[in-house]
Amino acid sequence: MAQKNQIANQSTVKEFLLMAFSDDRDMQILHFAIFLSTYFLALVGNCLIVVAVILNCHLHTPMYFFLVNLSLIDTCIISTIVPKSMAISLTNNTQISFSGCVTQVFIVVMCVTAEVVTLSVMAYDRYVAICHPLQYRLIMNWDACAQMAAASWISSVMHAVLETGVTFRLSFCASNIIEQFFCDIPQLQKISCTDTKVNEQLILILGIIVDSFMFVFIFVSYGYIFSAVLKIPSVQGRHKAFSTCTPHLAVFSLFIITAVFSYMRPKALSSPTLDLIFAVVYTVLPPVLNPIIYSLRNKDIQEGMWKIPHKIKKLIE
């Protein structure tokens, strides 16, 4: 009872302090330059994909429809995190408002969930295209694609609302220093002055149910895909299929492993440096790599990008 009264008497946190990458000015400028370059590449790459697919009718297929969804998700997540981190390096002001922190948590959880679901749907699309090519148009019709995309966003928003709600029901009345370059749920749990067992159990249960299902689903899909690819008589055909699928599987594995580790790791394995590296890998790296893997190596997308100025000129005229 005395402990509760003591907590009630403490001032409630109204803002948080994010972690700067360094206190050295030269390192801060270097961090700003690296993150600016990364953000620019991600923004340009993902925006070009969206514009190319919208303006070119021959790209209006399920595969590119989900690729646009992935690009929008990547643009959203990197725009939520990186600009604030760059501002910290420039101004040396690490403050973020309570409402700003809530917004970051909501958008990050929503986008990470949507990315996992979208990557799973893209794996299913490739499975149907390679293993059941004659039924592809029937299975992956536009109604089915719209329903899968809607289900992805709705489930992601619901998950984000749940995680954000249970996180900010906690009291923050002592330390307001977050040991991360954005508002991250595990770091917020660390500085809470109330019991976080329910929150940790919720993350664990949801992680086991959702992440395990998606992980198994993707690897089973790719198991069937690789089995079908190995039956292709042409060496060139097998190489093309493997070169398309393997990078997707590699990026998904990197994304899901680092995200799961960040949210579900034992406290004994937690350290500021490790937490920072894993956070960068699952939030900043995918928006940069996805355009390269799914698009810049794709001749259809490349042709679509080259046609953008011509298409825009025709629209203006």
Automatic annotation (TrEMBL):
InterPro entries: GPCR_Rhodpsn (IPR000276), GPCR_Rhodpsn_7TM (IPR017452), Olfact_rcpt (IPR000725), Olfactory_GPCR (IPR050516). Keywords: Cell membrane, G-protein coupled receptor, Membrane, Olfaction, Receptor, Sensory transduction, Transducer, Transmembrane, Transmembrane helix. The keyword Transmembrane helix applies. Residues 45-294 form the G-protein coupled receptors family 1 profile domain. GO terms for molecular function: G protein-coupled receptor activity; olfactory receptor activity. It is a multi-pass membrane protein. It comes from the Eukaryota. GO terms for cellular component: plasma membrane. The chain crosses the membrane at residues 29-55, 62-82, 102-124, 202-229, 241-264, 276-296. Pfam families: 7tm_4. Its main location: membrane. It is found in: Cell membrane. SUPFAM superfamilies: Family A G protein-coupled receptor-like. Belongs to the G-protein coupled receptor 1 family. Odorant receptor. PANTHER family: OLFACTORY RECEPTOR. This is Olfactory receptor. It comes from Eublepharis macularius (Leopard gecko).
